[in-house]
Specification:
Helices cover 54% and strands 11% of the residues. With 215 residues, it is of the alpha/beta class. It has a five-stranded parallel beta sheet, with helices on both faces.
């Protein structure tokens, strides 16, 4: 299948764009969704995380306490590396399984930290045919995340500071979907649809298989 790597900063709207591509017939493999499944109650990552970090990062529901873990990894790069060592191989394994089973006019990997991973490895650049960035100005990102999550602007800023800058993300893009504060639903639909039609044309007769890994 023809493969797209879809990424964007927190609050950019990449999940909404991915949903549109799915409605139009694309297969979607979302690494963030997979990460949430792995850290849900009974998820495969829960016991390894509990063993590594103790019970304080596990909520009463049995799921990962994402706020507690977020604070821990921001304070300690070592803790972040330990968490990544647990969860990234699991995400990669599930990503490969779902990609192998995917059916659609093309395959979209939704990878929040795709651009960040390019600093250390070319695996995503090698694994996909095109990288698409959902682009948004930082102020709109903060407003969207605050509205949906209740996080403070300071907390959101810390998350954004750990992600690639807007300029770096755009420099890695083959395609861009603008979804800033001035973008209407109709605008976003039109821009996404134009890319969908372009990718469908490129995908005609294009064989291939996923050989990358998730992060």
């Amino acid at each position: 299948m023809y493969k797209i790597g879809l990424t964007g900063g927190i609050g950019s709207g990449k999940s909404k764009v991915a949903d549109m591509f799915a409605q139009w017939g694309a297969a979607i493999v979302d690494t963030d969704v997979i990460a949430h499944e792995l850290t849900a109650p009974g998820g495969a990552a829960i016991e390894p995380i509990r063993k590594q970090f103790g019970p304080d990062v596990i909520a009463s529901t049995g799921a990962l306490d994402r706020q507690a873990m977020r604070e821990l990894v921001f304070e300690s790069p070592q803790a972040r590396h330990k968490l990544e060592a647990i969860i990234h191989p699991m995400i990669a394994s599930v990503t490969r399984e779902r990609a192998a089973q995917a059916q659609g006019c093309y395959l979209v990997f939704v990878v929040p930290l795709l651009v960040e991973s390019l600093e250390h490895s070319s695996r995503w650049r090698d694994a996909v045919d095109r990288i698409c960035v959902v682009d948004c100005d930082p102020a709109t990102q903060v407003a969207r995340v605050q509205a949906r999550s209740g996080l403070t602007p300071e907390a959101i800023g810390r998350i954004m500071s750990a992600q690639a800058s807007r300029a770096v993300r755009l420099a890695a893009a083959d395609d861009v979907v603008l979804n800033d504060g001035q973008t209407t639903v109709d605008d976003l639909t039109s821009r996404s649809r134009a890319l969908h039609e372009q990718w469908c044309a490129l995908a005609q007769g294009r064989p291939g298989s996923f050989a990358g890994s998730g992060s």
